[in-house]
Specification:
37% strand, 140 residues, globular
Length: 140
């Protein structure tokens, strides 16, 4: 089982914690985490962009996609957006992406906010014991 730090805009994290957003979608132009690095049962820590880690949950299932086109991204939107809750701006920014990972969430709950010292721009981090921002060491 892997542990992941998932950075989200506050509005999306609020939807996840409220149980309205049940699938997290990561669309990218290059193959990067979580693509190839995530499995059902993995643990997720949810962090607000420029804010604290405020939630935790697990991966119920995933679906990895490659070779995406504008038409395939549009099809993703029509098939899954009721679970993803992406706005038109999000989908417009992602129309040229080639890779995607759909992550079905389960067991999501809020936690006491934890501030961490994360300085890089990665929006998804696969945590390691020696590089976990203290989240694994604290037994969260």
């Amino acid at each position: 089982m892997n542990h992941h730090l998932v950075i989200l805009k506050k509005g999306y994290l609020d939807l996840i914690l409220a149980g309205r957003k049940t699938v997290e979608l990561r669309l990218t132009k290059v193959r990067c985490a979580p693509f190839g690095r995530i499995s059902a049962g993995d643990r997720l820590f949810f962090k607000i962009s420029s804010g604290a880690v405020c939630g935790v949950g697990k991966v119920r299932k995933i679906k990895e996609l490659s070779g995406l086109t504008k038409a395939k991204v549009e099809k993703l939107k029509s098939k899954y957006n009721h679970l993803i809750c992406g706005d038109d701006k999000y989908w417009g920014q992602k129309k040229d992406c080639l890779f995607g990972v759909l992550v079905w969430l389960e067991g999501v709950k809020a936690m006491k906010p934890v501030r961490i010292e994360k300085k890089d721009w990665r929006a998804w981090v696969v945590l390691q014991k020696n590089a976990s921002y203290g989240l694994l060491e604290k037994g969260k």
